[in-house]
């Protein structure tokens, strides 16, 4: 039942100004950056605020061993916006790649983890954000590409 948090795929950092932050990382030699590929239709999608989710802007950078994601949540209410307002810029979640999204979500729920948001596409890909902030210090996400 355990083992769903074994293959780190990405670290997501919330920021106030996406362009400014990308520029800074690039000045340090970190890049290239690309837009997060929000593509495909979800057959299941449960998020606290769909409009806020749709409005979030992301930039990603593939490093040798992990992907960095920068997220600017925007002005609409969302868990990410509240985090940024309350805690400031910083790591919001760690994303772990899994072989089976459904099984990993079920395993997380069996561990007693609450779900913040989840989505599934017809091909079985998707994500699930677990509410692990209080005990893990950050949100833990499972995803299948």
Would you give an account of this structure?
This protein is of the alpha+beta class. It has a single domain, classed as 2,3-Dihydroxybiphenyl 1,2-Dioxygenase, domain 1, CATH 3.10.180. It is built from five helices and nine strands. The two termini are 21 Å apart.
Give a short overview:
Pfam families: Glyoxalase_4. This protein is α+β, with helices and mostly antiparallel strands and 145 residues long. It has five helices and nine strands.
SSE layout and pairings?
Blueprint: E1 8-14, H1 18-27, E2 34-35, E3 42-46, H2 50-55, E4 57-62, E5 67-72, H3 79-87, E6 90-97, H4 101-110, E7 115-121, E8 126-130, H5 133-136, E9 139-144
Parallel strand pairs: 1-5, 6-9
Antiparallel strand pairs: 1-6, 2-4, 3-7, 4-5, 7-8, 8-9
Domain VOC: 7-145
GO biological process, one term: L-methylmalonyl-CoA metabolic process
Pfam family, one: Glyoxalase_4
List keywords for this structure.
globular; 2,3-Dihydroxybiphenyl 1,2-Dioxygenase, domain 1; single chain; 36% strand; alpha+beta; 145 residues; 9-stranded mixed β-sheet
What is the CATH superfamily classification?
2,3-Dihydroxybiphenyl 1,2-Dioxygenase, domain 1
Kindly provide the radius of gyration, computed on alpha-carbon positions and rounded to a whole number of angstroms.
15 Å
Overall outline: globular
Question: Percent helix among the residues?
Answer: 25-40%
Mean pLDDT: 95
Poorly predicted runs are none
How many extended strands? 9
Estimate what percentage of residues fall within beta strands. Answer: 35-45%
Largest sheet features: 9 strands, mixed
* Topology order in helix (H) and strand (E) letters: EHEEHEEHEHEEHE
The N- and C-terminal alpha carbons lie at a distance of 21 Å
Q: What count of structural domains? A: 1
CATH architecture: Roll
Q: Quickly give the structural class.
A: alpha+beta
* H/I helix tally: 5
CATH fold category name:
2,3-Dihydroxybiphenyl 1,2-Dioxygenase, domain 1
Task: Give the strand order, joined by hyphens, for the main sheet.
Answer: 2-4-5-1-6-9-8-7-3
Which CATH class is shown?
Alpha Beta
